[in-house]
Design a protein that fits this description.
Length: about 425
């Protein structure tokens, strides 16, 4: 695989140093790539650095193993280790890089990292390594570039016929972007024409349009024209909620940044939604994203804390629960290293608490739509199973969608080159507990 990247060679040493420092932030502090880069550069806009970091992270496990086999570096010098990993990766994958000049720049970046003593090591290691087209002798999880815990989790949660496609998808950059109009009424002819004028094509899902190989500038122009960038799965999931009556009250209790709220209102324009999240900043961002939706009001509320004043207040509830986000790894390869095996039961517990806390808010006969953007049983079917055991009046309503496969308590969208991964389960509260 080759990746085309235009690099100003005079800035290469700085780029390599900043990449190494960003990787250190990601692995040491489990920061997302954007946050790590901002910490390192004090800037919100570094598209090239972001691209290099994300590309390195897609293949990090195999190159980490390779560098470890070729040199020993003390923990206090781990930033040099990260420098070598990204340098070997770039030598292997990026076009238009002069090897000799690149190695010289990598060695020079040690000075910027205040590790001048490592300069000769970096030069020697990169000189002697001639990256092959494949990395032989690697363990199965390293061959597909995921941590061991994640490899085992996919083996246990995902049918074998989907595993290869998932790992293959995670090794590639997303090529398709999806959009919806950022206002109610998605089916009118004006929307269809607007989409065509912007180069967007129907995706096969109502109200969802797509385009391939967009530049950042093209994406920005589409958003400025009044469209919202949202993966097709996140547009489909809100549409699974049954049609509600005019004036029906809906609670979106983990609403930020508002994508699923807007998608729901696009399908059901006569409902009223209370969009909540636990912080002022998240609610402010949600309010801004939903400024064209007068059907929405906003509330700062922690969904894990029960509030009796909302009991039996809502005809439907959306719980897009905080999760490990494993279904988004193609777009966010840093998730592989931010999440961990130990975090899975903590998230599952939080998800169970949220369901139990908001369940009393639902009117008898009402619906609760639970969703995540992950693909493991622990955060999906197992959470629903526990909730229905604790609340016998919660009945699972079967779902189906051509992009998803049925599970015991819902449906799951497996990641592929056309969609992120995700899960949805629909519950209805019985009118009579004995039913």
């Amino acid at each position: 695989m080759s990746i085309s990247l235009c690099i100003n060679m005079s800035n290469l040493a700085q780029n390599l140093a900043q990449t190494a420092l960003s990787l250190d932030q990601i692995f040491t502090h489990r920061q997302h790539t954007k946050d790590a880069i901002k910490q390192v550069t004090r800037s919100d806009h570094n598209p090239m650095l972001y691209s290099v970091c994300q590309d390195t992270l897609r293949f990090y496990p195999s190159y980490e193993a390779w560098v470890s086999q070729n040199c020993k570096i003390k923990h206090k010098d781990r930033v040099i280790f990260y420098l070598l990993v990204t340098a070997v990766f770039q030598l292997h994958h990026y076009k238009k890089i002069s090897k000799n000049q690149f190695i010289h720049s990598a060695a020079e970046s040690c000075r910027l990292l205040r590790k001048s003593s490592a300069k000769h090591l970096v030069y020697a290691v990169l000189k002697k390594i001639s990256p092959p087209s494949t990395l032989p002798g690697l363990a199965p999880h390293l061959q597909v570039n995921v941590p061991f815990w994640l490899f085992k989790s996919i083996e246990e949660s995902v049918p074998e016929q989907h595993q290869k496609e998932i790992f293959n998808t995670w090794s590639k950059k997303p090529s398709i972007q999806h959009f919806r109009i950022n206002k109610p009424n998605t089916l009118d002819s004006v929307t269809q024409q607007e989409a065509a004028d912007l180069g967007l094509k129907p995706s096969g899902v109502t109200g969802c349009f797509q385009a391939e190989a967009l530049s950042r500038q093209q994406t920005s122009l589409i958003i400025e024209a009044g469209w919202y960038a949202q993966n097709i799965v996140n547009q489909v999931i809100p549409s699974l909620l049954p049609q509600l009556g005019k004036g029906a009250k809906v609670l979106d209790c983990c609403a930020a940044p508002g994508g699923k709220t807007g998608a729901l209102i696009n399908h059901q324009t006569e409902i009223h939604v209370t969009a909540c999240d636990k912080s002022e900043d998240k609610v402010a961002k949600t309010r801004d994203n939903l400024k064209h939706y007068p059907q929405t009001n906003f509330l700062v509320m922690d969904a894990t804390v029960p509030n009796a004043k909302f009991n039996q207040s809502f005809d439907a509830i959306l719980v897009d629960a905080p999760c490990s986000a494993l279904g988004t790894i193609q777009k966010h390869p840093d998730v592989k290293f931010i999440q961990s095996k130990e975090n899975q039961p903590l998230l599952s517990t939080q998800q169970t608490i949220i369901l139990s806390s908001v369940w009393p808010y639902l009117k008898p006969g009402g619906y609760l739509l639970y969703s995540t953007c992950t693909i493991t049983k622990e955060e999906n079917d197992q959470v629903i199973a526990k909730h229905t055991r604790n609340h016998p009046e919660a009945k699972v309503i079967p779902l189906n969608h051509p992009r998803a496969e049925p599970t015991l308590h819902g449906i799951i969208f497996y990641p592929n080159m056309e969609q992120d991964g995700g899960y949805a389960s629909l519950l209805q509260k019985s009118v009579d507990r004995s039913q």
